[in-house]
């Protein structure tokens, strides 16, 4: 009898523990997914439009985080810092576009140029902010943790707000792309760049805007990532790889695909890190390979991009 | 008929002549330069050039821009270090296995990415490359994680210790010449023609009955020989290998070596390696921001010319040749029988090297 009660209590406790753990995995996964989406949406937008794999996107993330860090030390306000940081990376991204315009190729020389820019950015980050990992302080409103309903766990408010931020950014992007004139121009340029330019629209300006938007999103992601993770050497490459995986899995050029793939990859990665820490990278890549095996062009990719 | 025999003979005698020049240069090099230059510049740019040659082959011949060559390079280096330092293998057995690991790793990269081209290939190989990096960093039981392997002693060859500068230089130089000769041989075979077909027009290659996938895979495997050799020699040279030797920065550095050198010729990789090594060594006297400079130089090279230093040099060369030809043609009719690859002007080659424009 006593043994039965003890066993029952043990089972309840275990399942609660497992439940708590799954909840944690879920939340960690969604947080990561939020960050990945902020990165991947800009990346995939740029690719869809200009056929450039912007390998400096990770550099923009890192610099955005560092800009925000310095601005926060100056102003003391996270939101101002993150906002201005995003404006700065949007500017950098625009400059990058102006440089890229000087080569006319099939995307390869442009991609090479972004590689060079990535190196310069990483080295400048090291020069100006040093090699010691540092992080931003979360804004006062979002500091501390909240109780998770139905469990004994606490979860940092800021991490949850990253998910909210990503959803908000996704919503804004959707509104921009599907409810504004600029958005329909962007979508038309993805489908047929030449036709749009024949219609008398300055396609370069559209491209420039897209680069700025992508840069701003990367900068924002840098501020967010720099707050709940940290800013350090090599972070740019880590986040670049993650967003690359998300973009490939989601289908190049598809923002919906980026959202779905960010969720899938984020959750799988969180699960793998909790349960099989040493195999986490293998499991993430396994997911990518599985997705590509089932859908060779990504979740929402189209066939026409077979051999670019 | 007669003229083609004549052409072949000139090609062969030219190859022999360049081999003789290379051998002479290698032989006198250690006597001419200081030990510092020999170690820090000559040997370094030779092994970097060997690794670069594998990428120059992929890009210049097959049109495959791979970012996984550093991974192949790293696999060979790691295999040798693991076998010697953790499993007490004899060095030369380990070297043999590591040398075989290069083409095998290349084959695997090729199999994974055989259906892709252009940007997609670049992204997929980048993912593979970074995956190998993370593997090296995280799988401590096999790769010793972050620190990697230190204290690797270069082997002795016929009783000569390769830890010494001069023997190491000679061995590396011979390997470099072998790599160049090997690639040139492959380029002259029908397979080499198929690689160029893959670069210029995959659809037509397919229409001729070739499998583009098999061609891609074999190009990766062939390039793996050189990447693996570069990896092995780099471990001899550095005495160490760690995830830092194969991270994204190194991957980009290799690409920079190749792009600065130019992909018209395999030898361009060595020029690029020399340029990058010189930059890294001498600019660090003035500033710590060598990476910024390397990145900026790379961007300028891409902006100015897609053919790098070899393109610039060949352009000057063909201009000189034309001027010479003009002088000669006053005396006799010019010999137009030699139409091998090396006579193509860089402008023409660059046009052929470009991929089909996007639809």
Account of the protein in words:
The complex is a heterodimer of chains A (308) and B (359). Chain A is mainly α. Chain A is 75% helix and 2% strand. Chain A contains 11 helices and 2 strands. Chain A has helices at 2-50, 57-75, 78-100, 108-129, 157-179, 181-191, 193-198, 203-228, 235-250, 255-275, 280-294, and strands at 145-147, 154-156. In chain A, strands 1-2 form a two-stranded antiparallel sheet. Chain B is an all-alpha fold and 359 residues long. Chain B has one domain (36-353): ABC transporter involved in vitamin B12 uptake, BtuC (Orthogonal Bundle). Chain B has helices at 2-32, 35-61, 69-86, 91-113, 118-138, 140-143, 165-188, 190-200, 202-207, 212-238, 248-261, 268-282, 290-304, 308-329, 346-353, and strands spanning 156-157, 160-161. The model of chain B is unreliable at 334-359 (pLDDT under 50). The interface between A and B is large, with 44 and 43 residues.
